[in-house]
Structures are given as structure tokens and as C-alpha cells.
């Protein structure tokens, strides 16, 4: 069968499997945020989701895009980074909108140009998040352009990109620990995180991606498991918080 497909279309089963895996890499990274988006939209409550998850992914994927110009890794991984950045801005827009609607007393506007470290990544308008990442991207691109021929710098960008992404679960772990509850966090999102990260790490190993990718992929899986442990650890308090929210 393999040789028939190859003769007629210039394809092999290996090609089809490879394309399928590449497509899963691109879409699979976004999929976990669909249940979290729907949950926030349905409950009109964004407090259980840490916006630092979005910051982590925006920084990681912007660095990964810059890394591509210094060391050309597989195109699907580049496309995944672009799609993920778009997804994170969609999540931020929803969270900012919901939090504004839930304000009982109109609070003072906090924007990026205030340059107030106390309110970094806690701004009250969506444009500030765009401005922040635009500044980061332009500065990163300028430095990368100047040092693109310096191999240790390029490798450092690659390491920072995947290490930052590997720490994705850390903000959510901190949020859950602070609340002593996982209320507001989508369990489906975390399960999909875990499955996706296991697949992604295996993909990195099989496709012989740069070492930084698969080492940090293993770290990411470990943090996913810690979050799942928190779901079990805070189960009773999470259930009580849900009953309180429903007015039971």
C-alpha cells in the first residue's frame, strides 16, 4: 500500500503520519484553552485563571520565533508559536472584559504607560497588554539582529524560550496555592495540557529537535502533574467554593 500511494501521489504513509503529527502540534497547543475560555465566558468569572499563564506563553513563543531566525527548526513549531500568541491575546481580551464587567465600584484605570511595577500585567485595558508585548518583541528583534551570528546567544534564546514555556504551569500552581482551591480553573484544560505536553515531548525526541526542546518538555510535564495533584489536594475546598458561588 505504501508504494502504491508513493507511485500515484508522490506520498508515503510516513509523510501522512508526519503531516498529521505536525497538525496536532499546531492545533493541540491551542486546544487546552478552549474549555477554559468557555468556562470563563459561561460563568463570567476570570479570577481562577492566572493571566501570568498568558504572559509566560507570550514571552516563550516570542522568543521561540526569534530563535527560528538563528536556528531553523521545523516550520510547524514556528506556526504553533504564532497561533499560540494569537490565542493568548484572545484569552487576555476575555479576562479583561469580564473583570471590568464585574467591578462593583469603578476602580482607577491602570495602563502600561503608567510604568507602575506594582500593576505590571494587571492592567485594566487590553491595549496595554498589546503594547507591552510589542515593546518586548521589538527590543528582542533588535538584539537578535545584532547578535544573530553569535552562536551562544542564539542557543541562549532557544533555551530561554523552551524553559519559559516549561514553567507555564508555575503561575497556575501559585494561584491555586494562594486560593487553596482550584475553583475557576478548568480541569479539562490541565488534562489537555498534560496529554499535549507528553505528546509534544515525544515529538521533540522522535524528530530530533534541539536538546533544549525535549529537556524542558519533560519539566513541563512534571508541573502539569503537580497541578493535577493540587486538584486532588484542594478538592473539598474547591467543591465548597462552587457551592457558595451557586448559592447552595
UniProtKB/TrEMBL annotation:
Subcellular location field: Membrane
Transmembrane segments: 16-37, 49-69, 75-98, 119-147, 153-174, 186-206, 212-235
Domain of life: Eukaryota
Gene name, Swiss-Prot/TrEMBL: LOC106118350
Organism field: Papilio xuthus (Asian swallowtail butterfly)
Keywords on record: Membrane, Repeat, Transmembrane, Transmembrane helix
Name of the protein this chain belongs to: Solute carrier family 66 member 2
PANTHER family: PQ-LOOP REPEAT-CONTAINING PROTEIN 1, PQ-LOOP REPEAT-CONTAINING PROTEIN 1-LIKE PROTEIN
Recorded topology in the membrane: Multi-pass membrane protein
GO biological process terms held by the UniProt record: phospholipid translocation; retrograde transport, endosome to Golgi
Keyword Heme attached: no
CC terms in the record's Gene Ontology section: cytosol; endosome; membrane; trans-Golgi network
Pfam families in alphabetical order: PQ-loop
Amino acid at each position: 500500500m505504501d508504494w502504491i500511494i508513493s507511485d500515484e501521489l508522490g506520498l508515503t504513509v510516513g509523510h501522512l503520519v508526519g503531516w498529521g503529527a505536525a497538525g496536532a502540534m499546531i492545533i493541540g497547543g491551542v486546544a487546552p484553552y478552549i474549555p477554559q475560555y468557555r468556562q470563563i465566558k459561561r460563568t463570567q468569572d476570570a479570577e481562577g485563571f492566572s493571566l501570568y499563564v498568558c504572559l509566560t506563553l507570550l514571552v516563550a513563543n516570542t522568543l521561540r520565533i526569534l530563535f527560528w531566525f538563528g536556528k531553523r527548526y521545523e516550520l510547524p513549531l514556528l506556526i504553533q508559536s504564532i497561533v499560540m500568541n494569537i490565542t493568548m491575546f484572545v484569552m487576555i481580551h476575555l479576562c479583561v472584559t469580564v473583570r471590568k464587567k464585574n467591578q462593583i465600584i469603578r476602580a482607577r484605570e491602570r495602563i502600561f504607560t503608567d510604568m507602575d511595577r506594582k500593576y505590571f500585567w494587571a492592567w485594566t485595558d487590553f491595549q496595554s497588554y498589546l503594547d507591552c508585548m510589542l515593546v518586548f518583541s521589538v527590543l528582542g528583534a533588535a538584539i537578535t539582529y545584532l547578535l544573530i551570528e553569535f552562536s551562544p546567544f542564539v542557543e541562549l534564546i532557544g533555551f530561554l524560550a523552551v524553559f519559559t514555556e516549561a514553567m507555564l504551569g508555575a503561575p497556575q500552581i501559585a494561584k491555586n496555592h494562594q486560593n487553596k482551591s482550584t475553583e475557576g480553573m478548568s480541569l479539562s484544560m490541565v488534562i489537555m495540557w498534560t496529554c499535549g505536553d507528553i505528546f509534544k515531548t515525544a515529538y521533540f525526541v522522535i524528530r530530533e529537535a534541539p536538546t533544549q526542546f525535549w529537556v524542558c518538555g519533560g519539566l513541563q510535564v512534571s508541573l502539569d502533574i503537580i497541578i493535577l495533584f493540587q486538584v486532588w489536594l484542594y478538592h473539598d475546598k474547591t467543591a465548597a467554593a462552587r457551592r457558595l458561588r451557586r448559592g447552595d
